[in-house]
Specification:
The complex is a heterotrimer.
Chain A (H helix, E strand, L loop, with lengths): L2 H6 L6 H18 L1 H18 L1 H4 L33 H37 L1 H16 L2 H12 L3 H28 L2 H8 L4 H37 L11 H8 L8 H28 L6
Chain B lengths: L3 E12 L2 E13 L3 E6 L5 H8 L8 E3 L2 E4 L2 E2 L5 H7 L4 E4 L3 H4 L6 H10 L5 H14 L5 H6 L7 H13 L5 E5 L7 H18 L2 E6 L2 H7 L2 E6 L2 E7 L9 H9 L22
Parallel strand pairs in B: 3-9, 3-10, 7-8, 8-9
Antiparallel strand pairs in B: 1-2, 1-4, 1-5, 5-6, 10-11
Helix pairs in contact in B: 4-5, 4-7, 5-7
Chain C lengths: L2 H40 L4 H6 L5 H10 L6 H13 L13 H36 L4 H15 L2 H15 L24 H7 L3 H38 L2 H8 L4 H39 L4 H10 L3 H33 L3
Helix pairs in contact in C: 1-13, 5-6, 5-9, 5-11, 6-9, 7-9, 7-11, 8-9, 9-11, 10-11, 11-12, 11-13, 12-13
Classes of the chains: A mainly alpha, B alpha/beta, C mainly alpha.
The complex binds adenosine-5'-triphosphate and magnesium ion (MG).
Chain lengths: 300, 275, 349
């Protein structure tokens, strides 16, 4: 029996085989979606570029030669995408910038997901006034337009990449809290939770050991769908000068830098925008494909 | 010449586990008469009816060796040709009025649409609709005409549905459990209307039902379906003499007012019937 | 069951819904005020210094400190601030030295006009696109609509704006550049409503009207594209849902033509949730307007907010945030109520 047959077996003998088989089928479904595969490829390339940035980048991203390489157009010798007003190679800056983009996404996910899970599962598990207070608070944060709230926070905390990440995280968790709460409500009264309670486990333990793992998968899908939004918000903050500060090669800030040369040196603002667009399109295609395969109602 | 001739009708739906055939080679002819179709839930009665109107829901496919209505072939009709047949010459009373009426359109508007689509002037369409509502025993036709579907009871919705399909006086009517939500007196009245249309106007009627007793007393002939096949075709008067074990089983399960029926009878199925 | 009692019951339902929505909004709004207030307190900028300047003596400083109420407990400070906000007093802007409420009232029409033109563009194109995709589900048209939508979701709006300016204004000269109107036309009309399209049209200043159109068309198209992405996707999914309902088959049985099935039978049902979607995208446009206005030097709320941000004009930032938050909450409430109103009129839920 090949691995494939074992995975696709209609009568799995173990729970592990059934679960792996289910994942494999999902993967087969996903693989048939060309656009989603394209998105996955973009994201993978982004990750690889970020990891190998020091080896891939042909020039120094921060220091350029002001006398010889200022504002060279694309396809100049040694500068595939041209150079900016400081004589820095744009391609190298984009390659190094992928690390910032990826770091922002990763950090926001790492901060916002646990907060959302904690608030949502606690509200769902305890119900009553705990639920009311927590969800009301969630609704208040949701009531602000995301970018505006992030702007206000950065204004208060001061500009900078760390504060931008904190501000985006503050605006990102409420949807995860709502989702986790909804999931918790469906499992709160199940028999195995009741059994664990009877054994005298403390609520914190039940939530952490039993409720959180069950909410994980739906929250992860939602997070994937949000990643493009996180990238765009971060770029927007960078563009307004509130995110990463110069000379860091953050893509949004690079666009802002190129704005002054828009008419005659169009490439300085165009290239980083293309990078943002391609990467967030990749995340969107990936998330869209994931939702299609994992949401049974959309299956045809 | 028969009104409708069907030979080897098949309806297939693609599924994740390959194609699933829900109507499997149904053949019959219909004159200007009342033909009953009975069978348990899921046996393919509604899908047969829909296929006759070319309304198999996608991604389903219907095929037939022969499908002719009043001498003309229905297979491969264009969308426009279908539209001129549907509503005007053939129509179908849908099974569940709760879902089969548009929830945000007044009932009267939906009734008139059946006529207006085929070019009847507005005033005339309205008069005909009100008359039709009255004919199906609706006491306050003006009110029902203005009402939205959710404001009607199940029985009223069913009668509005019947009125909607009869108002254009079709030559062929497929009625999918048209009287299941009606009380006995209204049921009789509705059946009388259908009966008159068959005998006076020569309409062909396909009457789909679970109710074996009703079908045997109202229809001329009965098709018994099981798992997408016609397992037996009988004259209604000879229903008690049915041969097929499935039909006999169904007959056996009918409740009787007199007589103790304990233990309740069960229907034993045989995999071979579906072959 | 008579229609009258039914209508009465629906009325009661509507009132109860309105009460509960109003309650929710009141609490949300209070939260909005608290959050804004707290943001204002954690600012590293010393509000006293910005009043008295850094040359002030300790006595002057302390006097200003007390005058600003900073010596009082936080809750009391909040209460004082709250009373002021309810009187429309957000304090003065350091930048313009005018009361912030006056500033906001002055810039708001520009944003309103931009957002409105955008939502019209997004709706008029987005709905037919979504319907078209739904009717052709799984075919290439469906995929094209999906990709067009995803591109709208993925492109940074400020970059699209720059690219649009570069191409359509600087290179091809098809539209006018940044700003709302050229200086040469600025005195051809008096801005009564602040909505220049309406002002110029009412005063018959058609030359200026044309100029205003050529200014607004590019930013509004870009913002419209963003809402189009959302509207077309939601329209598609609502339409797919409606087209699979039994009543559609009923209409087909009657021989109703396909365009009528789609645009009358199905659309009437899809319209109910669509109204909500449009109200929500209108609210989201406020967000998009911040970055768009910056790129197009569009003198609206978004530009006011970013200018204040860059000059650490905290009162103005908080005032602007609060106003935008309030509009956002308000539009959410309106969409919620509209849904109930439209829905209760015709169906039972
Ligand atoms: N859209 C569809 N896709 C796949 N299978 C379908 C679809 N519609 C119906 N079927 C299947 O076709 C079979 C026959 O359905 P049909 O509606 O004709 O039954 P029926 O005899 O009318 O039952 P009932 O008495 O309950 O109305 C059922 O097994 C059903 O599961
Ligand atoms: Mg049926």
């Amino acid at each position: 029996m090949t691995t494939r047959e074992w995975l696709l077996s209609d009568n799995p003998v173990s729970r592990r085989q059934a679960r792996l088989g289910q994942s494999y089928r999902t993967w087969l479904d996903f693989r048939r979606n060309g656009l989603a595969m394209f998105g996955l490829a973009i994201v993978l390339v982004l990750v690889l570029v970020a990891i190998f940035a020091p080896w891939l980048a042909p020039h120094d991203p921060l220091i350029g030669d002001l006398r010889t390489t200022r504002l060279l157009p694309p396809l100049s010798e040694g500068h595939l995408l041209g150079t900016d007003d400081q004589g820095r190679d744009i391609l190298s800056r984009l390659i190094w910038g992928s690390r910032i983009t990826l770091a922002v996404v990763a950090l926001v996910v790492v901060i916002a997901t646990p907060v959302g899970l904690l608030v949502g599962t606690t509200a769902g598990y305890f119900g009553g006034w705990v639920d009311t207070v927590l969800m009301r608070f969630t609704d208040v944060v949701l009531a602000f337009p995301k970018l505006i709230l992030a702007l206000a926070f950065v204004a208060a905390l001061g500009p900078g990449i760390e504060n931008a990440i904190i501000a985006i995280s503050i605006t990102a968790w409420p949807p995860y809290a709502r989702l986790a709460r909804a999931e918790t409500l469906t499992i709160r009264n199940s028999d195995f939770i009741a059994a664990t309670k009877l054994q005298g486990a403390r609520p914190a333990r039940i939530i952490w050991k039993h409720v959180v793992p069950l909410c994980m998968s739906s929250v992860i899908i939602r997070v994937t769908l949000d990643m493009a939004g996180i990238i765009l918000t971060a770029a927007g903050l960078g563009f307004l000068g509130l995110g990463a500060q110069p000379p860091q090669p953050e893509w949004g800030a690079m666009i802002a830098g190129g704005r002054n040369f828009l008419v005659d040196q169009w490439w300085v603002a165009t290239m980083p925008g293309l990078a943002i667009f391609i990467v967030s399109l990749g995340f969107n295609l990936l998330g869209d494909g994931l939702r299609d395969v994992l949401d049974p109602r959309r299956r045809t | 010449m028969s009104l409708l001739e069907v030979e080897n009708l098949r309806v297939t739906f693609p599924t994740r586990h390959g194609p699933s055939e829900v109507v499997r080679g149904v053949s019959f002819t219909l004159g200007r008469e009342r033909l009953g179709i009975v069978g348990e839930s899921g046996s393919g009665k509604s899908q047969t009816g829909r296929a006759l109107l070319g309304l198999t829901p996608p991604p389903g496919k219907a095929t037939a060796d022969r499908l002719s209505f009043d001498g003309s072939d229905l297979r491969g009709l264009s969308a426009r040709e279908w539209r001129s047949l549907r509503g005007q010459r053939m129509s179908m009373v849908m099974q569940d009025p709760k879902f089969s009426l548009n929830p945000v359109m007044p009932v009267g508007k939906q009734l008139m649409e059946a006529l207006r689509t085929h070019g009847t002037p507005r005033a005339q369409a309205k008069r005909a609709s009100l008359d039709m509502l009255e004919a199906v025993q609706i006491r306050d036709p003006e009110r029902v005409f203005r009402a939205y579907p959710h404001e009607l009871s199940g029985g009223m919705g069913q009668r509005a549905m019947i009125a909607m399909m009869l108002v254009s006086e079709p030559d062929l009517l497929i009625a999918d459990e048209p009287t299941s939500a009606l009380d006995v007196t209204i049921q009789i009245e509705v059946l009388r209307i259908l009966d008159r249309l068959v005998t006076d106007r020569g309409m062909g009627l396909i009457f789909i039902s679970h109710d074996l007793r009703l079908v045997s007393s109202f229809c001329d002939r009965v098709l018994v379906m099981y798992a997408g096949r016609v397992v037996e075709e009988l004259r209604a008067s000879e229903l008690h003499a049915a041969q097929h074990p499935y039909t006999r089983g169904l007959l056996n399960c009918l409740p009787q007012i007199d007589g103790d029926r304990r233990p309740l009878p069960t229907l034993d199925r045989d995999a071979a019937w579906a072959e | 069951m008579t229609t009258r009692t039914n209508r009465g019951r629906r009325g009661a339902l509507w009132i109860r819904k309105a009460a509960s929505v109003t309650g929710t909004v009141a609490v949300t709004f209070l939260g909005l005020l608290i959050v804004t207030f707290l943001i204002g307190r954690v600012v590293p900028v010393d509000p006293v210094l910005s009043v008295v300047g850094d040359r002030a003596t300790q006595a002057q400083y302390d006097a200003a400190y007390r005058a600003l109420g900073l010596d009082k407990p936080l809750v009391e400070q909040f209460w004082i601030w709250l009373l002021k906000v309810f009187q429309g007093d957000f304090g003065n802007s350091f930048l313009t030295t005018r009361p912030i409420a006056v500033d906001i009232a002055r810039v708001f029409p520009a944003t309103l006009e931009l957002a409105t033109v955008s939502i019209v563009i997004g709706t008029v194109i987005g709905i037919p696109m979504g319907v078209w995709a739904a009717v052709n589900q799984g075919r290439w048209i469906d995929h094209v609509v999906r990709v067009v939508g995803l591109i709208g979701y993925s492109a940074p709006v400020f970059w699209l704006g720059l690219m649009g300016l570069l191409l359509l204004y600087f290179k091809l000269d098809l539209v006018s550049g940044p700003g709302r109107v050229d200086i040469t036309y600025e005195y051809d009309f008096t801005p009564k409503t602040g909505l220049f399209l309406i002002d110029t049209a009412m005063q018959g200043a058609w030359g200026a009207f044309g100029n205003v159109v050529s200014h607004i068309i590019l930013p509004a198209s870009l913002l419209g594209y963003l809402s189009l992405a959302y509207i077309s996707r939601m329209t598609r999914s609502f339409m797919l849902n409606e087209l699979s309902q039994e009543y559609i088959t009923t209409a087909r049985v009657k021989g109703v033509p396909e365009w009528r099935i789609i645009w009358v039978q199905a659309m009437r049902n899809a319209a109910v949730p669509l109204v909500t979607v449009i109200a929500l995208s209108y609210a989201n446009l406020l967000e998009g307007s911040v970055l768009t206005e910056t790129v197009f030097a569009w003198p609206g709320l978004g530009l006011y907010l970013t200018n204040s941000l860059q000059n650490a004009d905290m009162n103005a930032v908080l005032g602007g945030t609060l106003v935008i938050g309030a509009i956002f909450v308000g539009l959410n409430m309106v969409s919620d109520l509209l849904y109930t109103l439209l829905d209760a009129r015709t169906r039972k839920r």
